[in-house]
Amino acid sequence: MAIVGIVIWVCMLLQFSIQIDSSELLEFFKSPDANSEESIYLDDRQPNVILDALSQTSRYVYFLVRSPLSTQYARFDCKTAPRPSSAAALKEIRLCCREDTTKSAQCHRLEGMPRQGIVNCGKLNVKYTLWSREGASFNISFAPSTERPVAYNGLISCALSDGEAVIESNEIEFRDALFYVDQLNTQSSNNVLLRPSPLPPTDFPLKFECGTDFATKMKDWPSWMTAVWQKVVPFEWAFCSVEDGTAPAGCASASTPVNVGEGITTMYGSFYLLNAQYLRSHSNSAIVCRQRNSLNPIVIYASAVKGDSPPKITSGFSIDDNASPSVENSDRLVALSPQSLHFEFLDGTILNNFQLQAFYRRPAGAAVESTSAVWYKDGQQLSDAGVQDYALRLPDKVSRAIAGEYKLEVTNPNSPALTFVFNIAVIGPPKFQNVDCMDDLFYVMEGDTYRTECNINPGSSAVKVGVNGIEGQTTQDLRRRLSNALDLANKPISQLEIDFSVTGDDKQGRKVVVSVGPLKPSQNFRLSIKAANGNGQSQVAGTIRVVPKPSLTTSPSDFSCASASDQEPFFVRCVLDKAVSVKWSNTFGILADQGWLLNRMWTLEEIFKDSQLAPYFQFDPADPTRIGVSPLEPFPKMPTTTTTTTSTTNGLSTGFSEHNQPSSESYTSSPGTLKQLLSSRTSRQVDSLSLECRVRLFVNNSRAAFHPARGDDSALAPTLLLDRKRREALSDSRKIYDSMYEQDAELSKTLTATRSLSTEPVEPALANLSWILAVVISIIIVLAVIALSVWLCTRDRGESYNAYRKELKIGNDPLLELKDNKSFQPFERPPLRVVGVLTTVSKLAEKGDVITALSASFSSQAIIATAASACTRSACKRICLPEGRSEPLSAKLRNAASNALPWPAEQLSAAMKDR
Questions:
Q1: Within 13 Å and on the Cβ side, how many CA atoms surround 403?
Q2: Biased composition, Polar residues: where in the chain (predicted)?
Q3: DSSP of 215-228, one letter per residue?
Q4: 657 falls in which pLDDT band (50, 70, 90)?
Q5: What is the pLDDT of residue 913?
Q6: Are 328-428 and 435-547 equal in CATH topology?
Q7: What percent of the chain has pLDDT over 70?
Q8: What local confidence, expressed as pLDDT, does residue 914 receive?
């Protein structure tokens, strides 16, 4: 399984790298074989070079090849980075040329031209190969031993456009050093020049010339030849031991090169033999100027020859310490080389042991030891290791720091002083102090501002800032050009909020500060800063891409609730817009990690590490967009599994396992509600629950630069696929965005769900069916009891009312009778009522309606007794019982009546008689 995982990971990376290379904006392609040096020398060891268009500075290619077997060529690839397969052909493919920096460039448009061809760029013939969607490749080559009627010098650059953006390369300047060398007459000859011998030591240094016209021609060389002449000079100096009748060719072939310290060769072809040391130890030696690497003589200096076709050298030079000086003014300091020289160096040039050389002859005699030589630069004495009596070695790499006035002051007590002055100027196009001041690819989050600052070295320069190839010298000028560009009409880039400033001067240098933003989605652009002068230009450029912020199709804020009713478990969802997620992955090479924050205090990882807090939450690693919360009690325990489920979202492993989620069964005592638990953890009352969807973006594109987002991600998931690689991919240094620190209040609100927590747990009204049935049954019973009670209380009143009405019908008014009774007392009312009822019962009995009378009177024992008394004094002799049986009125009934009535039977009879 581990092998399968690794294979899947590798495949993802391969696919990922292919996807992220797809570019929406035009960018130059970086060739893996391209030479990135500023100065390139095509010599016998390295006759070929490949260049791309990504260099941030101008480059210089020197043609120095001497070998008759080597073909030298320079290939310049002007291609775009891989583009989507749906991308259209380029609108423009241009090759721009000029002969030198004093002339304007002429541009040749190649789109629509044959796939292969030749473009004449001044003295250069440039071959090209076209690709309509990628660009072009240019080639300049020279066959072995190519004759050079002119110098193959020139500058070329290229530009590509897709109709919306234009990208331009810096210039490449080709310098044909061999043309100038070939103008020197260095043909082999048997020419021997004679000088007297022996030589007195006071005559040194001695000057020798290799050719009569070398100095004249070399003074007309371009200034850049100063730095490379030692690489291409076609001659060298040597000593030749002379025997009787030595031929010039034999002398040159057996000669020994001059060692350092014995003599110095100048760039004008002169040779100065500094002292007599070699000749004193090697008497009878000739001095030879020979062709470099061929050992053929150009000219030989000796003291005697014989014959002339060819001459035979019979005597060389020797030293006579006692000989008188053979030169004039031997008693004073004499200058042997020019006392004022001017040199121009190209900034950044690599020098090969270049020296400022001043040659002079000391006075003869004892005064020679008193001669002093001191070097100065801009008035400051120099005393480093490069200081010598006759020369001063300059640093190997030219910079503007070496520019200035150098002086050599030679003094002797017996002679006027000598002063040699060297003015050194450092020229070249403006240079940025740090070409990395602008990254080639930079990611900026939506709503943020991109800012860069670039410093330009001292020197004259005109600065322009460009967006997609549209340049301006001021902010207003650039904004106007962007808004008026037809190709950018109605596009977000036309409304780009860009500001820049240029401060400083030629002496101190210049500083360019560019600020762009706040940036909106789709405002991707190519930014450039170009500095130019009469010697060329330098340009730094980079692509700025705007990374969109998270966009949601389902927001946590949709699940917010302000009322205190969160008693049941609930779920919150956070679903990212798929289109934005795909763009993160495919266009930017960004990995997205989605998680949750609880009350901005606990991350998802921290929640599930807490054995008390975790059971109140439910989270499925396979669906990180959803989280459940149980406010009152832990969730029921989920079925445990022995396998670990690790899910991936947009290439990220959540790192959670089903078996490591605690449940309510893990408690030994009731943990309380979630509100109580959170309150105890924070030492304050927690009345609401905040669930924030946390989105973190990590840049997995090593080519892209960005400003890391703040915050610490030390709580990353512990179980990760390919742990080491993933830790590197998800480290804080690669995090570009964290929604936890989102400044946009609206987006932050959208990412957050807020739920209130009740103070006390309240059982819901419809908690269960049994409780509902119990309540309904109780209500029914209470209503039945109330109805029965009402009926029982009102039944006797109804019978009394009917009896009252019947009394009125027969002419009796029970109420009036009660009022007339003076002996009436409140507690006597029951008997009076009985008397009234008795009359009714008696009349019913007299009619023979015994059953009715008894039924009406059967409700109380008192009425029964009264009815029985009525029956005894009326025609009622028998009583009918409810069961339908009749029996004579007996003493038993009378006894029952007596027991039921509050009056004795005798009183009742008396009352009835009175009535």
A1: 15
A2: 650-673
A3: HHHHTTS-TTHHHH
A4: very low
A5: 47
A6: yes
A7: 77
A8: 47
Tokens of 697: 């973006």
Could you give the CA distance from residue 167 to residue 467 in angstroms, rounded to a whole number?
A: 9
Q: pLDDT value at position 697?
A: 93
Six token digits for residue 280: 């004193």
Select the highest-mean-pLDDT range: 10-14, 145-149, 205-209, 869-873.
205-209
In degrees, rounded to 5, the angle at the alpha carbon of residue 96 between the alpha carbons of residues 90 and 100 is 165
pLDDT above 50 for 24:
yes
Residues 6+ apart with CB under 8 A from 244: 314
Which pLDDT value is given to residue 799? 67
Q: 524 vs 349, 521, 533, 578, CA distance in Å?
A: 37, 8, 30, 21
CATH class of 328-428: mainly beta
Residue 824 burial (CB < 10 Å; 0-12/13-18/19+)? middle
**Which residue ranges make up each domain of the chain?**
20-180, 184-326, 328-428, 435-547, 552-756, 788-914
pLDDT beyond 80 at 494: yes
Residue type, 577: D
Q: Which two tokens stand for residue 522?
A: 């789709």
Output 69-73 pairs: Cβ under 8 A, ≥24 positions apart: 69/144, 70/44, 70/144, 71/47, 71/141, 71/142, 71/143, 71/144, 72/42, 72/47, 72/48, 72/141, 72/142, 73/47, 73/48, 73/49, 73/139, 73/140, 73/141, 73/142
Task: Using the predicted structure, report yes or no on whether residue 894 has a pLDDT greater than 70.
Answer: no
Q: Which two tokens stand for residue 373?
A: 């030589």
319 contacts 279 by C-beta, under 8 angstroms: yes
CATH 3.30.2090.10 applies to domain 435-547: no
Phi, psi of 697 (to 5 degrees): -115, 130
Q: In this model, does residue 865 exceed pLDDT 70?
A: no
Note whether 242 and 285 are within 8 A (CB): yes
pLDDT at 489: 79
Maximum Cα–Cα distance across the chain? 205
Q: Is 402 in contact with 426 (CB distance < 8 Å)?
A: yes
CA dist., res. 249 & res. 214, Å (int): 22
Q: How many CA atoms does the CB half-sphere of 626 hold within 13 Å?
A: 8
Cβ contacts of residue 146 below 8 Å, gap of 6+? none
Enumerate the H helices of 406-559 as residue ranges: 475-484
